[in-house]
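Figure 3 (text version): C-alpha cells given as input.
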C-alpha cells in the first residue's frame, strides 16, 4: 500500500483552499528539497527530492509549505491501524508506504483484489485520502504494481504474469536502479526490463559488480525477501468521525462499545494487553480533549475497555455535540507475561474470546457484536 502524494494530500484534505491547486511540501530554505508534491504540481514537472529552487522555477504559482511532521505521523498511525485489520505482518517502509504479508489470511480475504479494495475504501472513508495498491507474489512485484496506475490505483500481478508485465517497462522501474544505473544501461542498449532479463548477469557484473545479479533476478520477477514487521506499536486504537454530531448519551455509549470491541479485537490479534486506556473527544466546535486512565491489571477484554472508557466519559462535561470519538490502548505488554490474569473467571472469559475471535477471523469482524451496539 502506497499513499498518494501523502504530505500534500493531507494538507489539501485539511484546508479546502488548497484542493485542486499545486501544493509542494518540503524545506523552504535556499537548499531545501521537495518532500512531496501534489499531482497538480507533478503535472508541471515538480517531483520528490527535487531542489526547492528548481521547483519554484517550474511552478512559480505553487503553494509551498514546510509541512507538519507530527500531523503526518499521527495520520500514518491511523493508516497502520487500518492495515492491521487485514494482516498481522506489516513492514512499514515510510510514513506513507507499507508491505502486508497476506499469507494465512485466505479464509478472511480469499480475493486479494477485493482485500486491496477494502483497504483503499477504509482509507478513503476514514481518512479522506487515497492510496494505491499493488498485490503480487513478492515484495518487488507488489511495490512495482502499486506505482503503475497512480493515483488511486490497484494492480494485481498474479503468479505467472510477471514476465508479461515487466517486459515493456523501463529499467528505471527496477528497485535500486537510479538515474546513474539507468544511464549506464541505456548506453549498453538496455532500455526495458525485458531486455535486461535477457542479458547475461556475468556481462552486467563488469559494470555493476555484485549488484548485477540482483538486478537480473528482479528483472525476471524473482524476489525472496520476507515481509519483516516493523517496531512494536506504542498503542492500539480506533477513532471515528461522525456524519452527524452525537448528542444523546445512549448514542455515545453505543459508539464507545463499538470502539471498545474493535480495539479489543486488535489487541488480541496482535497478542497484546494494555494498561492505559485513552478516550479522545472532538466536539462540534473542533475543540479536542483526551483523557486517560491506567488500570491496575492490563487487559485485552472488550468489556473492560468499554467500562473504562464509559467511566471516563461519565466524569466529563459534554456541553456540545461530539464530532469525533476514539479509544486507544497503550502501555502495551505481550501476552506471555499475563498468566496471573487467567484464573477463575478470567480463564472462562479468555476462552470465550478465543471462540468469538475465531468466528471473526473466519466470517469477518462484524459477525459478532455486543447486543446494545447492534441496536
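Below: residues designed for each position.
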Amino acid at each position: 500500500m502506497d499513499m498518494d502524494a501523502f504530505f500534500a494530500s493531507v494538507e489539501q484534505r485539511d484546508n479546502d483552499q488548497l484542493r485542486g491547486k499545486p501544493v509542494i511540501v518540503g524545506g523552504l530554505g535556499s537548499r531545501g528539497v521537495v518532500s512531496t508534491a501534489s499531482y497538480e504540481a507533478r503535472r508541471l514537472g515538480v517531483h520528490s527530492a527535487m531542489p526547492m529552487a528548481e521547483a519554484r522555477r517550474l511552478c512559480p504559482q505553487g503553494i509551498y509549505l514546510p509541512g507538519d511532521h507530527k500531523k503526518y505521523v499521527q495520520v500514518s498511525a491511523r493508516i497502520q491501524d487500518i492495515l492491521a485489520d487485514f494482516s498481522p505482518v506489516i513492514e512499514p517502509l515510510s510514513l506513507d508506504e507499507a508491505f502486508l504479508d497476506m499469507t494465512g489470511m485466505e479464509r478472511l480475504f480469499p480475493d486479494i483484489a477485493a482485500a486491496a479494495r477494502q483497504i483503499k475504501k477504509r482509507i478513503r472513508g476514514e481518512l479522506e485520502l487515497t492510496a494505491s495498491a499493488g498485490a503480487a507474489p513478492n515484495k518487488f512485484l507488489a511495490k512495482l504494481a502499486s506505482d503503475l496506475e497512480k493515483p488511486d490505483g490497484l494492480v494485481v500481478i498474479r503468479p505467472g504474469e510477471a514476465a508479461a508485465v515487466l517486459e515493456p517497462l523501463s529499467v528505471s522501474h527496477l528497485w535500486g536502479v537510479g538515474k546513474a544505473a539507468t544511464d549506464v544501461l541505456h548506453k549498453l542498449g538496455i532500455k526495458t526490463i525485458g531486455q535486461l532479463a535477457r542479458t547475461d548477469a556475468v556481462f552486467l557484473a563488469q559494470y555493476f559488480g555484485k549488484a548485477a545479479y540482483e538486478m537480473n533476478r528482479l528483472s525476471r520477477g524473482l524476489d525472496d525477501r520476507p515481509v519483516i514487521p516493523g517496531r512494536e506499536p506504542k498503542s492500539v486504537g480506533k477513532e471515528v468521525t461522525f456524519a452527524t454530531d452525537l448528542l444523546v448519551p445512549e448514542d455515545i455509549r453505543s459508539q464507545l462499545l463499538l470502539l471498545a470491541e474493535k480495539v479489543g479485537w486488535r489487541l488480541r490479534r496482535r497478542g497484546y494487553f494494555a494498561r492505559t486506556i485513552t478516550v479522545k473527544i472532538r466536539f462540534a466546535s473542533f475543540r479536542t480533549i483526551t483523557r486517560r486512565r491506567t488500570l491496575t491489571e492490563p487487559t485485552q477484554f472488550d468489556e473492560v475497555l468499554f467500562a473504562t472508557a464509559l467511566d471516563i466519559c461519565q466524569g466529563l462535561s459534554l456541553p456540545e455535540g461530539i464530532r469525533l470519538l476514539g479509544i486507544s490502548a497503550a502501555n502495551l505488554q505481550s501476552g506471555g507475561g499475563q498468566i496471573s490474569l487467567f484464573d477463575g473467571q478470567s480463564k472462562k472469559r479468555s476462552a470465550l474470546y478465543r471462540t468469538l475471535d475465531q468466528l471473526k477471523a473466519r466470517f469477518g469482524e462484524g459477525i459478532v457484536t455486543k447486543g446494545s451496539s447492534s441496536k
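Residues 20 and 207 are 45 Å apart (CA to CA).
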